[in-house]
Amino acid sequence: MPKAERGTPKDIANRQKAKGLQKLRWYCQMCEKQCRDENGFKCHIMSESHQRQLLLCAQNPNKFQDKFSKTFLDDFLYLLKRRWGTKRVWNNTVYNEYIMDRHHIHMNATRWLTLSEFTEWLGKEGYAEVDYQDGKGWFLAYIDRDPQTLARKKEIEKMLRKQDREEDEQRIKIDMLIREGKMKEAREEAYLKEQRERMQATGEALDGPLAKKPKFGEDKKTVKIASIEIKSHQTLKTLQKPPRWVQVGAVVKVKSKSIPEFEKQKGFVKEVNGHKAVIQHLKLPKMKAQFHEDDLETVIPQVGREVIVMKGDLAKRTGTLKEIRQKEFCVLVENLLSTREAKPTPSSSFFKAFLFHLKSLSVLFISTVSLMICFRMRLISFLPFFGLISALYEDQVGKVDWKLDVLGSPKLAAFDDANAQADAIALYTEQNILASVSALDGSVLWKKTMPVSERVEYLFYANKLIVSISSGGIARYWVPESGALFREFYTSSPSSLTDCVRLFSKSIIICAKNNEVGESDLVIFRERKPLSETKASILVQAIITNEENNLAYLIGKNAQSELVLETLNIDDLSTEPVKVLSKESISIGEFALVSDGRVVFTDENAKTTSINLKEATVEDISAAANCKVITHAQKELRYAPDQFYGHCGSIVRSESGEVLDDTTRMEVFPSRLGIFTASLDTQNRWTFTAEDGKKTKSLSFGGARKIDSLWVKSYNWKNKNHLQILAFSEDGTVSFAKSSSEASTVSWTREESLASISQVQIFDLPPEDALLEDPSEWSFTRRVQIQLALFQTYLAQLSDKIKSGRLFEKKIGDPLVSTSELIRDQFNLHKLIFILTKNGNIFGIDSLSKDIIWKRSVPELDSCKTQVIKEAGARFKSNIFLVGNCQNEVRYFSVDIMSGSVEELNSALPKSDILRVESLRSATSNNPSLLIFKKLDVGKIGVEIIGDVDAATAEKLKRTAFWLYDSTSQAIIGGKFQVENKVFENTWTFQIPASMTISQVTAAPATDVIHSQGRPLADRSVMEKYLNPNLIAVLAESKEKTDLEQMFVNAFFLDGVTGEVIHSSNHKRAHGPAKIVLAENWAVFSYWSAKMFRTEITSVEFYKGTDDGNATHWDSLSASIPVAIQKSFVSSEEISSLSVTQSQMGITNKAVLIGTKSGKIVSLPRVFLDPRRRLVPAPTDREEGIMPYQPELRFPPNFVISYFQNLGPVNDFKVAITGLESTCTVLGLTDTGLFWTRVHPSGTFDVLKDDFDHMMISVILIGFVGATYACKMFAQMKMTNRLWQ
């Protein structure tokens, strides 16, 4: 149809229609064209111009999506800022006004799917302050960070501070004048009264002139006027300001409206200047502002928190808040000293009377005095309770899940150098983690994972900041309280560092790094000044400082490899001429610095050398006893010891020749308070000695393994030296101790060996005695007896609760676990986690409380490849078996998981490469037998049987097919085992090409239960699943790392009996990390698409078809090739691990557990990975429950079971079945800890909700029963009356 002529009614109607908004489904964002109906939109998408736009988008889809997202974000924020400013507004209101522009960017073209998701993203990125209101939705308020706005706010704040200062001064002057007037009037009245009394006593008349009044200060008498004592001999002091109550470290609430971002918000007091305080915003740590204390009020903590009284007779006394009486406006505080009732105080004093620290901040020590503080409130009628809520539902956080933080083996540690005990310790570990650990209880205050390409080489505490210096010369300054990055420095050229030293008096750090010309560059880091660099004329090996003379001694080599010395002036960075110390090429490693200017070290040839820095001389001081110098980390002459020490064979000797008795090891720890030596005696006890000879009490860290590293901080308290000691032992234990001349105690320990886990198993706890029997063997009488016993136990527990008054007490913790004892609960939710580490430690961890029940050290399993075998046969056995493939032998241990006892069952087995271990139960022996398959030679497999095997077990072994994975030859071998001659008969071998490497070999979990053997279709037919219990999944990838076209990932699915490949999948231009999970008749695997720079997920399902009938058993020899259905998806995050949920009966829908590199654990329902999803849905898909196909898989927040927890990359999962069909337990393993939680793929359909009102239901049921009997009685009465009539 031709276009209507301009001016005609048709043309006018078309133009009027085009002005308004049209339907979104007929809008093309790529072409920016709006169609008015479906026919027009169909014609548009078939046009050539639209096809060209789609081709452009297909080449780089992320580019267009990012462009649309940025435009949408900019326009939305511009409208929000100009229209509403910083006011709180409903997000739908802003969006409705935004879409009034018909040329706006539509949200379906951006990275955000919904307006709620976009609003949450704005709050997370700091563009706006968002909050959710029930029944209405999301609200947001724009955060204005415009420099002009901030400057204007600063001017307003400065003007308000000036006004406050002037008001304070004026108020003080007025108070002084009033006070002086009252005092003058009081003095005159006192003088007149005294004159009258004297004249009345002598009988003199008062009509004469009174005597001259004494000046204030001449009379030494004391008089009382209006119940106020005034000592006339004291001079009138200037009226002082009222004492301030605010203190550094307090958490306060801002009442002032001068800065909208701080109004009614909580903050952390960073600095106090008189009556003014600098407040740091808790939600926005980068925002700081100054307020007067009248504009602040403290917040009332929760019961059990620490408080401190700030005013009154009991000021500055700390205690624990035990009870809040809202109606009486009273609180109960416990303290060590006394218990009493205090007088009522006004509400303004009460809010200023408490100071508390949240658990994430530095914690005040708790006293235990019992104290009642009551207060009156005039305008406030309720108490605000504020807690740190960090999850979607506060009452669910930490109830059924927990997180165990580990850091790894510490490599560097730093204490605060102030003359006081340290509240926190900075640590850097082998896992490339920088963290701060509380010195009070060892909890992790914060931790940061450093970049993969960097390694921290030096760690300092400088001017109340943590300084980390990484390889390449990158210096970062961290805030100790929060871990926020304060400042960062980059050197001009990245190169390796040779040495770094800190200047205490100037808070300067000097580092030396090598350059390309064979010399060193000196880098000077200052906290608040730019980075400065200078060049040295030598290759620096060590830096020694002399702060008294502002000098730094540089020891190194020149171009001729001679040992030379260069002196650097710290102030102007000028250098003196280079002095040659020795013509020989001497390398300086670790050394000991002596206070007279000597550097003493022992080289690799056991030669001890002394370098005199002041005289620039070198001396060989090697003794006949061949002593090795004990080195230390002090590089400042002022704090260096007066002599050095050396290990001379089995004894320790000082420079003066003194031999230290009973010392097997010695360490030197210089500090700003003096030198301390740590000596280890034969009983494995440490003793610390100061320069004056005073020794501390002996300290034992426990454990049989030796201490690898010690870090010591000294401070003076009550004129006595005290030490804080951090020790790391070779078994992975980090211990913190306090030592003095009076006592030495270990405060806490951390098990950092959990950062290197070798094996993890989850075991059921032992049941009660009645449940030790097999339920299938219970008779009817036995069942009745068990039920009666359980009922008696319930009545006994109910009676105990009634007697103790805990019947109506709210249960704390997991509501489904009835007891915290190590016995199986009614739903089998309480588990025991068995962990074996790489260094030979074994742990038993309670899944309910994350407490370590027991720990044992097995040094024989250190660095061994170990397998954990559970005893077969019995329903519950507490013994498990560890088979370790060590360097020279195979070790075999039995472990009781309940007590932790370890027993070695044999001395040793011959060294071999173990391929597989199985546990066998023999009827003729009480102890289980082990079946060990080991590789003897290429293609030759040997079998070792430990224990006895009866005839029935031997016959069963003959009929069983085994498959073995040889990681050395990259082959999978299948065959059968001949019991008589202990020979493994190889029947098939799957060998991958040499250009590939196997990433993972897996089979379906042993606990995988099949509930349904078919899948119903819309036409009422059934598609039979391919349920092969012998299915093996092999994931392989190419060895190519550089050529994109040669990269690929292959997935093979084999039959474990015949070795037949039933399906294979090839993905080009892809590489690892590749992960796969197999369950029932489907498999899911992930890989990295190198071409598209994204993680892709492929889902495969196997079916036999619709003709095969239902079979009660499986026969791999006669089974046909299944039909495979495959579909690929795009993951929104990089995947690091995969697993699948399990259930007791298999009724619950399965979910795929996905661990991401960003530290999330996602429970994704299997329906999202259904390979039958179509791009264009069929009419029958809805009836079969098949969703339309969307390539990109995004993980909504409700699928993330780890919610806000920062776990780090998830390496593996361990899933355990519970007694509830809807629930399974999941243990996530990461490099920095463990995370335990529960998963409900189909919801908690078999458990009542936590808020289920049992009392109400009971009352209703009792009422119904009573009403039923009442109606029955009334009906009988009515019938009787009718019969009598």
From TrEMBL:
<dbReference type="Pfam" id="PF10357">
    <property type="entry name" value="WH_KIN17"/>
</dbReference>
<dbReference type="Pfam" id="PF25293">
    <property type="entry name" value="Beta-prop_EMC1_N"/>
</dbReference>
<dbReference type="InterPro" id="IPR011678">
    <property type="entry name" value="EMC1_C"/>
</dbReference>
<protein>
    <recommendedName>
        <fullName>ER membrane protein complex subunit 1</fullName>
    </recommendedName>
</protein>
<dbReference type="InterPro" id="IPR019447">
    <property type="entry name" value="DNA/RNA-bd_Kin17_WH-like_dom"/>
</dbReference>
<keyword id="KW-0732">Signal</keyword>
<comment type="similarity">
    <text>Belongs to the EMC1 family.</text>
</comment>
<dbReference type="InterPro" id="IPR056767">
    <property type="entry name" value="C2H2-Znf_KIN17"/>
</dbReference>
<keyword id="KW-0812">Transmembrane</keyword>
<dbReference type="InterPro" id="IPR058545">
    <property type="entry name" value="Beta-prop_EMC1_1st"/>
</dbReference>
<dbReference type="InterPro" id="IPR026895">
    <property type="entry name" value="EMC1"/>
</dbReference>
<dbReference type="InterPro" id="IPR036236">
    <property type="entry name" value="Znf_C2H2_sf"/>
</dbReference>
<dbReference type="Pfam" id="PF25095">
    <property type="entry name" value="C2H2-zf_KIN17"/>
</dbReference>
<comment type="subunit">
    <text>Component of the ER membrane protein complex (EMC).</text>
</comment>
<feature type="transmembrane region" description="Helical">
    <location>
        <begin position="1255"/>
        <end position="1275"/>
    </location>
</feature>
<keyword id="KW-0472">Membrane</keyword>
<dbReference type="InterPro" id="IPR011047">
    <property type="entry name" value="Quinoprotein_ADH-like_sf"/>
</dbReference>
<feature type="domain" description="DNA/RNA-binding protein Kin17 WH-like">
    <location>
        <begin position="52"/>
        <end position="179"/>
    </location>
</feature>
<keyword id="KW-1133">Transmembrane helix</keyword>
<keyword id="KW-0325">Glycoprotein</keyword>
<keyword id="KW-0256">Endoplasmic reticulum</keyword>
<dbReference type="InterPro" id="IPR038254">
    <property type="entry name" value="KIN17_WH-like_sf"/>
</dbReference>
<dbReference type="Pfam" id="PF07774">
    <property type="entry name" value="EMC1_C"/>
</dbReference>
